[in-house]
Write a structure and sequence with these properties.
The complex is a heterotrimer of chains A (258), B (307) and C (311).
Chain A: H1 2-17, H2 20-40, H3 47-81, H4 85-88, H5 94-128, H6 136-160, H7 165-180, H8 182-191, H9 194-206, H10 210-213, H11 216-220, H12 227-253
Helix pairs in contact in A: 1-5, 2-3, 2-5, 3-5, 3-6, 3-7, 5-6, 5-12, 6-7, 6-12, 8-9
Chain B: H1 4-34, H2 38-45, H3 49-55, H4 60-80, H5 89-99, H6 104-113, H7 125-138, H8 143-156, H9 160-171, H10 179-190, H11 194-207, H12 211-244, H13 252-256, E1 273-274, E2 280-281
Antiparallel strand pairs in B: 1-2
Helix pairs in contact in B: 3-5, 4-5, 5-6, 5-7, 6-7, 6-8, 7-8, 8-9, 8-11, 9-10, 10-11, 11-12
Chain C: E1 2-15, E2 21-34, E3 38-42, H1 49-56, E4 64-69, H2 77-80, E5 83-86, H3 98-108, H4 113-126, H5 143-155, E6 161-165, H6 173-188, E7 192-197, H7 200-206, E8 209-214, E9 217-223, H8 224-227, E10 231-240, H9 243-250, E11 254-258, E12 261-267, H10 271-280, E13 284-292, H11 295-303
Helix pairs in contact in C: 3-4, 4-5
Classes of the chains: A mainly alpha (258), B mainly alpha (307), C alpha/beta (311).
């Protein structure tokens, strides 16, 4: 079982890495990091803060874009192009396929994030003429971003298991945007009354809460990352992604292929 | 036709979904407890409103709306819990108006709720003035902002000269309200008086559509009613005692004596209480935020400083 | 042993905007394929052949009825491990090479790691894929080359049952011949082959039995040897000598002349008289051949209308 999942994961990774879309997006991320260096020169005294804010936000957004572009290819494209037929007719369970795809894409994103982080730290070193110990908190913030990637990937996978590539891409991006403002949604839920209150509250738990996981601003300010935050974020990210991947498997399990 | 083994897999997956999702909801709950104001934190950490505007990539209007909503909810939330301070209110309003300089209601909201004392406001009238001046800079033709400026100077800073100046500036606009000229004159002679306060609050009530500002103005007007009525009632009681030689224990004797048409009630409809020593109180002091008269004698800290 | 058995296998799709219009893709199908056979599944395009194969392979769920494969269910991985499947117009991962692709599939089919290289090389050689192409990315492959790769992945794990959807499509006559030979070879190794096609000559040459499907309905099943080759009562006569043609034509028989060579189709009973006529006309006889029924005749008879035939 694990061998098959591993084979699917590796194949997904290999296919993703050879897709040119990936490299374009990484280049864009580097451009953004470079641009934030320039922007910092305009405002005095806040270059470091600006670089970290903008740089990590760039990594976050481009990572999500990569997750979407490749994520929709995970299942939608495979069904569209029928590459799936010769895989599923082998002794592979449908859920193994989904799980393997998931790990393959997460692996791709980790490598991408690694590259972008490298670029970022180079920019940081150039700006600050060296690194300081408080910069380790930046790594924690990037770790949180990786957890967000994992959740977005799971959602892209879920959506692509029953909708077309375009639909899944748009919906995943929409969920990402809404999820970034889910704290505001929760505030609204708390001040609402009656059925609106419960509906909004339920919805705010259903969509991923990226606002609560986002630690870019405090880290840019130099704040350390408390250990309990790392624990809760990890738990939340893993459990949520897990639930969504299971849902994707469930849907895919029962799907007729065209 | 489904296989039994396929059913088993579907069942196992469904069970797993429920368990992991419940777990994620729990983890999220703990996460939110650990970071109660995650989305407000960036207000603390952003170096300046101008920097945020630069980073907003052109989506100023949308972000302004979001920050405006956060400002209102921040205030409402804390006000419900009778907070002793609202440190983030000014930064939130500052960011809102930086992103959308023409969001008048944000300036007006700040005029009221930054200037008032806690728990009904941030107790930062100077910040209020700062915000309104920014508003005037960005919207020089809006007479309401000059009104608010004069208001804050008069009611919260007791600087009647500055208030008169503000009203005067506003009265010289091409499209203004005649009221401003009246208030400018009023300031000069009757700065700290009740009548002036009533005019100001009535004007505030009439000049806005914002629900929160209107409600607040109404509370003030009702409080002014009490502030006006209580000393008059106490005067009447003194008159009665002087005339008849007895200290009344309720208002009935005064009604019978023709000094009052009926038992007096406050704007909330509750009858005033007369005490043996001659002082008058409202039925329920807890129900009143802004009154200065008609309170129990030992509410020391409750009474704000007299003008 | 029966390799494939279907019981009233049916598939109805719901189409239309609100998914309310039912479209019957396959009427209840009851069919069986025996071990060691080469079984041809024939029918015009759109008859429902691919739908049947998808139902057999578990890619879609039947609306009613069921099937047994190798004595078990397709959902059982152990059953699937013994089946090789080639879908219609296969498409593979663009950025992989045939070697990488087959390695991936071999891993999924639990081919032991130490055997993989050997089996992959053997499979690729068997399907006739040029060795230069083995390490080229699949996006550069022609349709015919992809078809060969498709066949390779179907036989890689030495399956007992091989199901092919239009295996000859995209191949030139040489390629088709190679695939025909391959199918026969595989059959001699004891494997059961079930393939769908609309090319009747291939089916006639290869199959032990055929089934004919039209508009989702099974029209007929038969042993090829029985259906083909029986003398249908006509005889084909060919000769040199155009002048004789009119005399024969006058008798009401089918006559075609191309230059000096003439061809006529006459009933068996008339053969002697026609030959006499030709002799008196001094025509030079080339051949006298009894005509046999072809699969095409059976096909047309079962379908009862103009059929798409490729020769």
């Amino acid at each position: 079982m694990t061998r098959r999942i591993g084979a699917i994961a590796f194949n997904t990774f290999r296919e993703a890495v050879r897709d040119r879309v990936l490299y374009n997006l990484i280049i864009f991320a580097f451009l953004m990091i470079g641009a934030s260096l320039l922007l910092g020169q305009i405002t005095i005294g806040v270059e470091r803060q600006l670089l970290i804010n903008l740089g990590l936000t760039a990594i976050s957004i481009f990572g999500v874009l990569i997750a979407i572009f490749i994520g929709i290819g995970l299942v939608s494209k495979e069904i569209d192009k029928r590459t799936l037929y010769t895989v599923l007719t082998r002794p592979v369970q449908r859920w193994e396929f989904i799980v393997g795809k998931f790990f393959g894409l997460v692996g791709t994103l980790v490598v991408n994030a690694g590259l972008m982080t490298l670029g970022f730290f180079i920019a940081l070193m150039y700006l600050m003429h060296g690194l300081q110990s408080s910069d380790t908190s930046i790594l924690a913030a990037i770790y949180f971003i990786l957890l967000e990637f994992m959740m977005v990937t799971a959602i892209a996978l879920l959506l692509s298991s029953f909708s077309t590539p375009i639909e899944s891409a748009v919906l995943t991006f929409a969920i990402f945007v809404v999820g970034s403002f889910s704290e505001d949604l929760r505030n609204f839920a708390e001040s609402a009354k009656g059925s609106t209150h419960y509906a909004a509250l339920a919805f705010s738990y259903l969509i991923p809460n990226f606002a609560a996981m986002n630690y870019i601003a405090p880290v840019a300010h130099g704040s350390p990352v408390p250990a309990n935050l790392i624990a809760y974020n990890t738990a939340y990210g893993l459990l949520y992604a897990g639930a969504v991947v299971c849902a994707a498997s469930l849907i895919f399990q029962n799907r007729n292929l065209k | 036709m489904k296989e039994r083994s396929q059913h088993a897999v579907s069942l196992a997956l469904t069970a797993l979904i429920v368990v992991t999702f419940a777990g994620s909801a729990w983890a999220l709950h703990r996460l939110q407890q650990a970071r109660p104001n995650a989305n407000l934190e960036d207000v603390l950490y952003i170096p300046s409103a101008k920097t945020l505007k630069r980073m907003s990539l052109g989506y100023d209007g949308l972000l302004a709306d979001i920050y405006w909503t956060r400002a209102v909810q921040y205030f409402g939330d804390k006000h419900r819990r009778r907070a002793l301070g609202y440190p983030l209110l000014y930064p939130l309003l500052d960011i809102t108006t930086e992103l959308d300089p023409h969001l008048i209601v944000a300036y007006r909201f700040g005029a009221t709720f930054l200037a008032q004392q806690p728990p009904d406001g941030a107790g930062q009238p100077e910040r209020a003035v700062q915000l309104i001046e920014t508003g005037i800079r960005n919207n020089p033709d809006n007479w309401r902002l000059y009104f608010d400026l004069g208001f804050v100077y008069s009611m919260n800073l007791q600087d009647y000269q500055a208030a008169a100046n503000a009203f005067l500036r506003g009265s010289e606009l091409p499209h203004t309200h005649p009221f401003l000229r009246i208030m400018a004159a009023q300031m000069a002679q009757h700065g700290g008086e009740l009548q002036t306060a009533r005019m100001l609050w009535q004007a505030t009530y009439n000049s806005t559509d914002d629900v929160a500002i209107k409600a607040n103005a109404k509370l003030h007007l009702q409080a002014l009613d009490v502030d006006e009525t209580v000393p008059k009632l106490e005067e009447l009681v003194k008159d009665y005692r002087d005339k008849t030689g007895t200290q009344p224990t309720s208002f009935f004797p005064l009604v019978q004596a023709g000094l009052l048409p009926r038992v007096p009630t406050d704007p909330l409809g509750m009858p005033y209480k007369l005490f043996p020593d001659g002082h008058v109180e409202v039925q329920d002091p807890q129900a009143w935020s802004f009154i200065r008269q008609g309170l129990p004698p030992d509410t020391g800290t409750r009474l704000p400083a007299k003008p | 042993m029966v390799t494939i058995e279907t019981f009233g296998l049916e598939k109805t799709y719901r189409v239309g905007f609100w998914r309310r219009k039912p479209k019957l893709a396959l009427r209840p199908l009851t069919l069986s394929v025996n071990e060691g056979e080469i079984f041809g599944y024939l029918g015009p395009n759109g008859a429902g052949k691919t739908t049947t194969l998808k139902l057999l392979m578990g890619l879609a769920e039947p609306s009613s009825g069921g099937c047994k494969i190798l004595g078990g269910r397709i959902s059982d991985p152990a059953v699937r491990a013994q089946i090789g499947f080639l879908p219609e117009q296969p498409y593979f991962y663009d950025h992989l090479t045939p070697l990488e692709l087959l390695n991936y599939f071999a891993a999924l089919s639990a081919v032991p790691a130490k055997d993989r290289t050997r089996r992959i090389d053997a499979a690729l050689k068997r399907v006739g894929l040029d060795e230069d192409a083995w390490a080229t990315q699949l996006r550069k492959f022609s349709k015919g080359m992809l078809q060969r790769v498709g066949l390779a992945q179907a036989i890689l794990h030495e399956p007992k049952l091989i199901i092919l959807d239009e295996p000859m499509s995209g191949l030139d006559p040489m390629g088709r011949r190679e695939v025909r030979d391959l199918i026969e070879e595989l059959n001699h190794e004891g494997r059961t082959i079930f393939f769908s096609t609309h090319i009747l000559s291939d089916a006639e040459a290869l199959c032990d039995r055929v089934a004919i499907l039209n508009r989702g309905e099974l029209k007929g099943v038969g042993v090829v040897a029985d259906l083909v080759g029986s003398v249908n009562g006509n005889v084909e006569i060919m000769w040199h000598g155009a002048e004789a043609a009119s005399a024969i034509r006058a008798r009401g028989f089918e006559v075609h002349a191309v230059g000096e060579t003439v061809r006529a189709v006459v009933p068996e009973s008339e053969v002697d008289r026609v030959i006499d006529t030709l002799r008196t006309q001094r025509a030079k006889l080339v051949s006298v051949t009894p005509m046999r029924t072809t699969l095409e005749d059976y096909f047309v008879a079962k379908i009862g209308g103009p059929a798409e035939v490729a020769r």
